[in-house]
Amino acid sequence: MKIDLQKLINATVEEIPFSGTTDLREETFFGEHPFQFPVEYQGVIKSQLDVLRCVGEIHTTYVTTCARCLKPLEVPVNVSVNMLLLQESEVQEEEENVFLIAGSTVNPEEVFVPALLLEINMAYLCKPDCKGLCPHCGADRNVTHCDCSGKQIDDRFAVLQKLLDQKS
Fold first, then answer.
1. Percent helix, strand, coil in the chain (nearest 5)?
2. Distance separating alpha carbons of residues 17 and 15, to the nearest angstrom
3. In whole angstroms, what is the distance from residue 94 CA to residue 97 CA?
4. What is the pLDDT of residues 78-87, one digit of tens each?
5. For the segment 7-65, what is each residue's pLDDT rounded down to a tens digit?
6. Phi and psi of 101, rounded to 5°?
């Protein structure tokens, strides 16, 4: 969906509301396809003192796994967007919260989707105190207690452990 900004530039209207849905199921993010649900966005483009501002929100559910125990997770993601829309010729240096436009149209998805991707964390936990998996037997420590010793000694250091045991 392209929005014609000419009405705002000519001061015919003060704002242009918009809403839509985009499909990001084919997008690869951290080696996965985590956007299995529709991505919905809504907002408004306003003209304030001859400066165009795009304000809105984007909502979706991010499908991933717990970084410690590997349980599947569905994380709701809600991102607020507040960007200035500037012509490429108006910007001298890169600035934060600025989206460069060429011409008099803008696609809201091009503004909102990068803002969504910037808010995604690299790792999520199923709960803050997730105990994760046992590094030796692979048991989920949230569900069961394994019999693995808490002090597993690497075979390469077993000789050093014997020296410490003899000293005691």
1. 20, 40, 45
2. 6
3. 10
4. 999 998 888 7
5. 777 777 788 899 999 999 998 887 889 999 999 999 999 987 778 889 999 999 999 99
6. -115, 150
How many angstroms separate the CA atoms of 147 and 134, rounded?
Answer: 10
- Summarize pLDDT for 60-98 with one digit per residue, the tens: 999 999 999 999 999 999 999 998 888 776 666 666 778
Q: Which residue has the tokens 């936990």?
A: 125
Q: Measured between alpha carbons, how far is 93 from 101 in angstroms, rounded to an integer? A: 15
Q: How many residues does the chain have?
A: 168
What pairs with residue 22 in β-bridges? 39
Three-class DSSP labels, 91-134: CCCCCCCEEEECCCEECHHHHHHHHHHHHCCCCECCCCCCCCEC
By C-alpha distance, which of 132, 163, 159, 162 is closest to 148?
A: 132
